[in-house]
């Protein structure tokens, strides 16, 4: 049975850095939640972000922004979005961030559970698949209520690259990146479509998006974050929007299909690891994983991605 969302639900965003502040901003601008709470241990930083955001409330759908360095600000939240963690440096892989970030999760999650015991937890901090597993382990929550943002952003990047090459709107492209949110992720080409036309049939009909182009697109998606971090120091706008899309699916009980990272149990033979596959997301969090028909190569690549995540999880004691 679905949980009925609160009349005035609160989204708590943990971490007032570039990703956390942008997520709070996107949630207000999109009207994702009536009340947004921003928490950070840096009091001056979080108070400044809340002041700046509050000054724009007359330009957005009705909403409220509160915040502070006391975790009580998160009390009663329906969704808790965790963005706090180490900043990924140029050239540094997401998995290299794992040890320090998992340590933070072990400290932070028990405190959050004290004030928001009934929330759905959305982990955004990288490496998000390992962080999601850590949050699940530390919290003891049902797996459905601990979600990683996973490859929702990567899939948006994929749709952007495809749309740009064939001259259609991103919204007309249906395609997903699956696996790790990181170097072993890959596009699920066999299930991709453009305006209802299977992508592989689009290739046969137009001579476009052949194997070489698809390989180029996949490379662009996998390396996108590294290029952005090299140029501006962080990714924040698109990931903030991706997080709010997941928030909306929960608060509005949309049963939206999103490639979020969740704990798998015998998905194409893969168990005991968090990674991204198309999943129904609603008020209870992560629901059914869609059993799409993978090709043999896609299944092998998903297993390899799972192995990569497991190796890092073991290194940090999970």
UniProtKB/TrEMBL annotation:
Its main location: cytoplasm. GO terms for cellular component: cytoplasm. The gene is ldh. PANTHER family: L-2-HYDROXYCARBOXYLATE DEHYDROGENASE (NAD(P)(+)) (PTHR43128), L-LACTATE DEHYDROGENASE (PTHR43128:SF16). Beta-D-fructose 1,6-bisphosphate binds at residues 159, 174. One of its GO terms (molecular function) is L-lactate dehydrogenase (NAD+) activity. This is L-lactate dehydrogenase. It comes from Janibacter alkaliphilus. HAMAP family: Lactate_dehydrog. Gene3D superfamilies: Lactate dehydrogenase/glycoside hydrolase, family 4, C-terminal, NAD(P)-binding Rossmann-like Domain. Belongs to the LDH/MDH superfamily. LDH family. Homotetramer. The active site is at residue 181. Residues 151-311 form the Lactate/malate dehydrogenase C-terminal domain. Keywords: Allosteric enzyme, Cytoplasm, NAD, Oxidoreductase, Phosphoprotein. Pathway: Fermentation; pyruvate fermentation to lactate; (S)-lactate from pyruvate: step 1/1. The modification Phosphotyrosine is found at residue 226. Residues 11-148 form the Lactate/malate dehydrogenase N-terminal domain. One of its GO terms (biological process) is lactate metabolic process. InterPro entries: L-lactate/malate_DH, L-lactate_DH, L-lactate_DH_AS, Lactate/malate_DH_C, Lactate/malate_DH_N, Lactate_DH/Glyco_Ohase_4_C, NAD(P)-bd_dom_sf. Its EC number is 1.1.1.27. Pfam families: Ldh_1_C (PF02866), Ldh_1_N (PF00056). It catalyses: (S)-lactate + NAD(+) = pyruvate + NADH + H(+). Substrate binds at residues 88, 94, 126-129, 154-157, 235. Allosterically activated by fructose 1,6-bisphosphate (FBP). Catalyzes the conversion of lactate to pyruvate. The keyword Cell membrane does not apply. NAD(+) binds at residues 15-20, 40, 45, 107, 124-126, 149.
């Amino acid at each position: 049975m679905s949980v009925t969302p609160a009349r005035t639900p609160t989204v708590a965003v943990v971490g007032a850095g570039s990703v956390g502040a942008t997520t709070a901003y996107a949630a207000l601008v999109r009207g994702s939640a009536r009340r947004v709470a921003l928490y950070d241990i840096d009091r001056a930083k979080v108070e400044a972000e809340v002041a700046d955001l509050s000054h724009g409330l007359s330009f957005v759908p009705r909403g409220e922004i509160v915040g502070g360095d006391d975790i009580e600000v998160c009390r009663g939240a329906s969704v808790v979005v965790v963005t706090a963690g180490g900043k990924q440096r140029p050239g540094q892989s997401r998995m290299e961030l794992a040890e320090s970030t998992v340590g933070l999760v072990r400290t932070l999650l028990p405190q959050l559970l004290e004030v928001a015991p009934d929330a759905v937890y959305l982990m955004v901090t990288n490496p998000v698949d390992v962080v999601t597993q850590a949050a699940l382990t530390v919290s003891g929550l049902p797996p459905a209520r601990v979600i990683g943002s996973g490859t929702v952003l990567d899939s948006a990047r994929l749709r952007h690259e495809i749309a740009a090459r064939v001259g259609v709107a991103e919204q007309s492209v249906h395609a997903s990146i699956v696996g790790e949110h990181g170097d072993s992720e890959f596009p699920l080409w066999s299930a991709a479509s453009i305006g209802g036309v299977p992508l592989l049939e689009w290739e046969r009909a137009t001579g476009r998006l052949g194997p070489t182009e698809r390989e180029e697109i996949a490379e662009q998606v996998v390396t996108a974050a590294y290029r952005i971090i090299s140029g501006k120091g962080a990714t924040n706008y698109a990931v903030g929007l991706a997080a709010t899309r997941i928030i909306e699916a929960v608060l509005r009980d949309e049963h939206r299909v999103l490639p979020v990272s969740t704990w798998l149990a015998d998905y194409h033979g893969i168990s005991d690891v968090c990674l991204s596959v198309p999943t129904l997301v609603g008020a209870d969090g992560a629901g059914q994983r869609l059993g799409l028909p993978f090709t043999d190569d896609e299944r092998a690549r998903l297993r390899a991605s799972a192995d990569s995540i497991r190796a890092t999880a073991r290194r940090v004691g999970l």
